[in-house]
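Box 4.2: Ligand-aware structure prediction
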Amino acid sequence: MVETAHRNTGVEGVAGGVGVTALLVAAARAIETHRPDSLAQDVFAEHFVLAAPASKGWPVRPEEVTDGDANPLWGRFARYFGLRTRVLDDFLLGSAHTGGVRQVVLVGAGLDSRAYRLGWPAGCVVFEIDREEVLAFKHQVLDGVAAVPKAARVPVPMDLRDDWAGALPGAGFDPAAPSVWLIEGLLFYLPPAAETYLVDTVDRLTAGGSALAFEAKLEKDLLAYRDSALYTATREQIGIDLLDLFDLSPRPDSAGRLAERGWSTAVHTPFDFTRLHGRGPLPEPNDALAGNRWVFADKPRGS
Ligand SMILES: C[S@@+](CC[C@H](N)C(=O)[O-])C[C@H]1O[C@@H](n2cnc3c(N)ncnc32)[C@H](O)[C@@H]1O
């Protein structure tokens, strides 16, 4: 199947490697939750950060951030994650409430607590795919705060570099019924073959009326931004070298691939939504966020 030798193997769970990035996003969501002008609320996020040794000492509130919004990591980058959370919350809830979709698939779910914090319609099922160790940590923390999901929740422990397509139907997912999929903060960690397999699998497992949102990075050369304020601050403040975790191979054109298969796609920059919501990051020189795109795709009904 897809290539399995990969730079993010080695450390499993959230102790290090790519799993620790789930904690980084959780810390950003915790900070966002406590902002006076918060765009998204995640009361579970700080519990993950406080429980994991790898995130010891990280801030979970805006008042704990030295330099506030001027801090490239816990200011600007955290604002990015807050905005992303809100935009993708709205996307998923729109598909469920307006589009009538009842199956939600979070791919590379990490410490995403949407199954516990969003108002899902009756009959909704949320499938969460991530590696076993990450999901085990998540359950341990959520059980510790007696969290109760607001939809039926089905964890699907899988490594997305393996042949995982059969796991979802095996977990109760119905490919004949419409579904909404989210691939947030994941693709740039995967080898290109695993990304292509993922997109083809989404196409194969979706009925007409389904939707997908994913985050991509368009740069031909990710290393061009190695000395950007964002990557530098992430290395210096918490010791995470994101570029070392990314798969630096040329990325496939996943939006184009979906369009070839009849999906309609809309490609946005995060800055489009900063302008819409009145907060979030804006472009800056040598910007590690310059190539980030949020892609929204719909599979026409009847296809
Ligand atoms: C940056 S986190 C994003 C988590 C979540 N989507 C969010 O936005 O909060 C990346 C997640 O992708 C998961 N991931 C990375 N490579 C993976 C793989 N090969 N198989 C399954 N999950 C993977 C990690 O374990 C981690 O939870």
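In the box above, the bound molecule is S-adenosylmethionine. The first helix runs from residue 20 to 33.
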